[in-house]
Amino acid sequence: MPSPSTPGGRTFSDALRSRSDEDLVALLLRRPDLGRPSPSTLRSLAARASSRTSIDRALVRLDVLEVQVLEAVVVLGEGSASPTGAPLDPTALLAALTEEAGDEPDADLVLAALDRLVEQALVWDAAARPGGPAVDLRPSPGLAEALGPYPAGLGPRGRRVPADLGRELADAPPGAREILAALTWGPPVGVAPTADPRGVTATRWLTERSLLLGSDERHVVLPREVALALRGGRTHARVDARPPRPEAPQRPEATVAAESADAAREIVRHVSHVVAAWRLDPPSVLRSGGLSVRDLRRLARELGTHDEAAVLAAELAFAAGLVADDGDDPPSYAVTVAATDWAEQTLSARWAVLTAAWGASPRTPWLVGTRDEKGARRSPLEQDMHRPWVVRLRRAVLDALAAQPGAALDEDAVLEVLHWHTPRAAPPAQAVRGLLREAEALGVTGVGALAPQGVELCRVLAGSPEPADGTEPTTAPVPIERAAGPGGGGGATAALAAALEGVLPPEVDDLLLQGDLTGIIPGRPSGDLERLVDAVAEVESRGAATTVRFTPDSVVRALDQGRGAEDLLTDLAAHSRTPLPQPLEYLVRDTARRHGRLRVGAAMSYVRAEDPVLLTGLVEDLSLRHLTLVRIAPTVLVAHAPAADLQDALRAHGLVSAVEGPDGRVLRTEDQHPPARPAPRRGGFRGRQVEVTSPRAAAERLVAQLRATGRTDDAQRTGPGPTTDGGDGPRRGGTDVGQGPWGGPERARVREGSGTTDPADALSLLREAIDAGTMVWLEVVGPQGSPARRRVRPVTLEAGRLRAQDLVRDAELTVAVHRIASVTLDLPDDPDDGSSA
Amino acid sequence: MNDGPLIVQSDKSLLLEVDHPRAGEARRAIAPFAELERAPEHVHTYRLTPLGLWNARAAGHDAEQVVAVLLEYSRYSVPHALLVDVAETMSRYGRLTLSQHPTHGLVLEATDRAVLAEVLKSKRTAGLVGERVDDLTVLVHPSERGHLKQVLVKLGWPAEDLAGYVDGEKHAIELTTTVPPRVPDGADPSDAPGKPWEMRPYQAQAVEGFWHGGSGVVVLPCGAGKTIVGAGAMAKSGTTTLILVTNTVSARQWRDELVRRTSLTEDEIGEYSGARKEIRPVTIATYQVLTTKRKGVYTHLELLDARDWGLVVYDEVHLLPAPIFRMTADLQARRRLGLTATLVREDGREDEVFSLIGPKRYDAPWKDIEAQGYIAPADCVEVRLTLPESDRMTYATAEPEDKYRLAASATGKNRVVEQIVAQHPDDQVLVIGQYIDQLEELAAHLDAPLITGATTVRERQRLFEEFRSGEINRLVVSKVANFSIDLPEASVAIQVSGSFGSRQEEAQRLGRIMRPKADGRTAHFYAVVARDTVDQDFAAHRQRFLAEQGYAYRIVDAEDLGISDTAQ
User: A249: cis peptide before it, omega within 30°?
Assistant: First the structure.
């Protein structure tokens, strides 16, 4: 029952227009979807703000307290339902929500929540006229609808406001009070008793006095006014002003630091391995995208870990831009140039890059192995696993952990906290679990509690822009944080690295070498030492200390890398406090002795001749030096040039050579071996160069533009407006708004001052008209495609249909929204139109 | 970070830095619950295993103590998951107990219903238990006491056996204080008749630990006097005793030692072997005779019930054959003592030892006992021999299954052995090998007697006796000498071939020379290995055990043998 409390009072869009620039900027920052794409006028901004999609999106981000306040405003803010019938002001709101007047802290929180709601234009103040009430809080148009049928567990409006319920119930039949009590705090709908005669009588008694309404044959509903009276004028039994603090085990600081440091070292090792292994042998990209199960298993095996950890390692390498689809045919995951820089950095710097990338990554690796809608298994690195909301959820999860330092919140506890923060958008438990596990694996948490470097990550994330909303599908990985530019972008990673440095155990440069061919590094190895043992020994156990074993194979590996036996022994001795054990020395020397008894080399072509002298001539000929001819036997030379080049060079030299095949038969020269794979490189891995404009700057620019058009717009309006400045602008058929910083250009046509053909504006006008009970001119396209104009009073706008009263024809009509061509406010030039009963 | 000597790894290994000032303290603190895995010179590795933790529980330690010890000595923060796991594992022991109910007899009792429900639900316990007495108690068929314990360990809920033991037939046994004069053997001056002796402190502790625990295993290095621990346990028990040993030679050595160390006379000790079938208050039987089957039936099982044994002693538990385990399952009402140098079983049946013989009751690392001077220090040398061209060609083209034999019995080894023997003219030298023809050749080369499986017991004993008395100082033996032969003055052992990579065999062979020498000389252990062959690989595997036990070994080339050894 829309009731214009202030005849001709200002509308929602008036209120929006009367906001200061600063408030508008705040609104756009809080509800970024309003600015994307840039609205043409403030009116269309208002229209968008009262559209169902935008309201839903705003509601989703409200916390429990904000929802409670909003419900109270919806219930009480329309005047008629409030016990006093007076416009709603903050004092009345507080009375309806908080326990006692003395409940100061809660009151402050409630008022702060109210401010935020006003800032987001979910609640607005209709009182702006001189002589009217000081404050008249109202829900924005369309909000009540979006909140659902029973805000705060209250039923629909009843037929009357019970004056003195206590006295009225004094002579109620038995059972009546119980029925009311059951429905008081909601849900307000109950099944009408049919069998129990006492219940039937009581229900009938209540219904007769309109204390209960029949909602259908079998159900009864408690009217809002009665419920409020029963609740003593309060809208909520309890106001949840603060997020819950679930019980969780408290972890000692040292344990958290140590465990998170271990995890951090481990994840860097894993990703380093991915980079090193894929540099040698890039795995191919599946046709459907992603990494094959076989490659994943191989990675897990090499890392000595389970699939989940391998997935995370691959995903992190990908998110940090260390590996990427090389776009070749067939494509494979190749190591990028950025990875080379990364690999040379210190442990904590490498970790910081990974963690920053994780913090910004919209990927959902925990979905790997599950099936998508088509029943296909999801693979790691697959495009399909981008979910823009993950970034926001990750922040929320980390914030929940940060709110209780040292506490190891488990999945349920985090969900409980998140539920308070966004009661209307339950985060998927699977994602929360996945994120918690990732945080643990990454060393952001230790034994479940946020580590110091995790706190730093929260700080870094809090300073980064809110991620894009779910509307635009993001296809590329989110730019890594280094995008901010060399040096400058290092700030966040440097801070992260420094935080990690604080928890890492001190480096140890000692290696205890023992006679059983094992070695122990009693702490975190220095970079040098780690490289040495990685080269020459097998690691048997990692953790606080590293134990390694020297085997013939491991020594061979080091020799393969070009190290000599003496060189290795010197290096080992340099790190050992005690003399090298004899068996180790023997092992290295003995292996070196056996190493290289068979020699293998690469050559691209060879020259063979019966006459050694002829070959000697070739080797010594300076003009053939570019072929790098090497004599490996008296009658054989090998060359580092393709056979065809060799052939040409020899011919040019006046020597007639013939090319032979593997079986020694003379062939024609053809079929060059394809050149070695060029180092994969793709643009953009050093971080996408995106134009980084702060959201605030963008919002400010937009508001300025809106103001500019707004002045013209207002000038065109014939009705009274809160802003009266701006001269007479020429009437224009349309206003083009240039490309806004928030998206592409939007072309909107504003016809007549108070009418519109823009669909969103039209809906907003209709909503305002419904709220104010004013008349509009509706241009409706008929079934034959011919437009018809009708003057109607809109009643409801629901489910894509407008219900309106045509007072002239005394008929009610329902029109599908898509058939409304334009809406024009029938401005209250003549007072009868605006105020109808 | 405190400056402790211990580093606790998340893979449940504990690294103990031996040179740390608090290392000794830490070692004593962790010994009850951690198994020593290897003990090389700088850092000893211990491991936490469920069996080890349960052993600790059985010895009366609880998880809090274990956690406190780890936190106390750990240099870095102890992995949280490991602490949780320790507490979880240890809490599993003792939730189930086997006990004697005054009216129902043997029952399995649980402290918590869910655990009992879980184990009873398992198919493996079906048939081992009877009716439920109440929510927390179920009847156990007395004959299934052992099987049930085995199954429960496998299910991860080891039962504490508090059902007690039968008293057994009384038979007074006392330890002597001096070696009785009637013993003919006088090879070892410390064992000379009339010479006073007493149990070494660790032996007494081992007996005490065992007796207190009821049943269980005592782990002592070879040469540390396990027989005396057995004798001590028998004296404590004062009952008829059944002793199970690996072979006849070993049985006779047990008999001699018992006569020397206890009030028992030769008439009270029976031998139950292939040769003799005597059942006396103390009966020594071989595993072999017990596991002999005729027409699919074990013919000598009656021995187990021949008397009301109050104590059953298992020598060399790590070699206990599977059928003995099965028989032992039926002996759960009798007190059981297991003796061994290592709990490592190449077949991985450590859990059966735990459930059927009992938890580990005493353990001392070799090096500790060596440091106390009770076993001889040993110098281990691997001699690498480069095969001549012709042998290498034969080896390179041989079938894989022949390769080890070819390499191990390379003729070049004979010369090396001769050289080593020549370097130890005054020592008692044992040459040990796997292949009879190789040994025969060596015996001929060295002009030394040879003992193989074909040598009669009488002949073996005669040769051992002569070797002991010093009449002969060279002896070539096949693997028959692996176990339990007692050669007090062998101070040099040369191994020319072994059974592939058996670590346990290597330890036993080293054990041959570890008895303390009268003059405190260092023992020498040589392994002669053919370079660049599988022989070398197997040798590496075998030596791992010794190196892990802290016996540093050197590797020398056969060509350098003379030089490097004189340099010693």
Answer: no
Give the residue on B whose Cα is nearest the Cα of A540. B11
The pLDDT tens digits of the residues spanning B185-213 come to 444 445 566 778 888 888 998 998 888 87
pLDDT tens-digit map of B363-414: 776 667 777 777 777 788 888 888 888 888 888 888 887 888 888 888 888 8
Q: Say if A262 is an interface residue toward chain B (CB within 8 Å).
A: yes
Q: Does A251 touch chain B (CB under 8 A)?
A: yes
Interface probe for B, chosen from A251, A514, A553, A585 (most Cβ of B below 10 Å), is: A514
**Coil, strand or helix at B314:** strand
Residue B16: count other Cβ atoms within 10 Å of its Cβ: 24
Assign domain B376-561 to its CATH superfamily: P-loop containing nucleotide triphosphate hydrolases (3.40.50.300)
Architecture per CATH, domain B201-370, reads as 3-Layer(aba) Sandwich (3.40)
Query: What is the C-alpha to C-alpha distance for residues A775 and A833, in angstroms, rounded to an integer?
Result: 6
Which residues have a Cβ under 8 Å from the Cβ of A831 and sit 6 or more positions away?
Answer: none
Q: Are A504 and A347 in contact (CB under 8 A)?
A: yes
Q: What is the pLDDT of residue A436?
A: 93
pLDDT tens digits, A554-567: 999 888 888 888 99
pLDDT of residue A451: 92
Please name the residue of chain B whose CA is at the shortest distance from the CA of residue A587.
Answer: B555
What ipTM is given for this predicted complex?
0.76
Edge-to-edge strands, sheet with A605-608: A605-608, A636-639, A630-633
Query: In whole angstroms, what is the distance from residue A390 CA to residue A101 CA?
Result: 41
What residues contact B497, with CB distance under 8 A and at least 6 apart?
B408, B409, B433, B434, B435, B438, B535
Residues of B within 8 A of A549 (CB-CB) are none
Residue of A716, A705, A777 whose CA lies nearest to A745 = A705
Interchain pair A523, B43: CB under 8 A: no
Return the domain boundaries, chain B. Answer: 6-91, 96-161, 201-370, 376-561
| Residue A258 forms contact with B (CB below 8 Å) | yes
One-letter identity of residue A420: W
Tokens of A623: 């003009």
A chain contacts of residue B1, beta-carbon cutoff 8 Å: 505-506
Comparing alpha-carbon positions, the chain A residue that sits nearest to B81 is: A447
Contact yes or no for A515 and B11 at CB 8 A:
no
Please provide the size of chain A in residues: 837
Mutate to test the interface with A, among B43, B44, B381 (most CBs of A within 10 A): B43
Asked if B96-161 and B376-561 have one fold, the answer is no
Q: Chain B contacts of A516, Cβ < 8 Å?
A: 38, 40, 544, 547-548
**Interior CA angle at A143 toward A140 and A144, to 5°?**
120
CATH second-level architecture of B96-161? 2-Layer Sandwich (3.30)
Compute the distance between CA of residue B320 and CA of residue A653 in angstroms, rounded to an integer. 81
Q: How many residues does chain B have?
A: 568
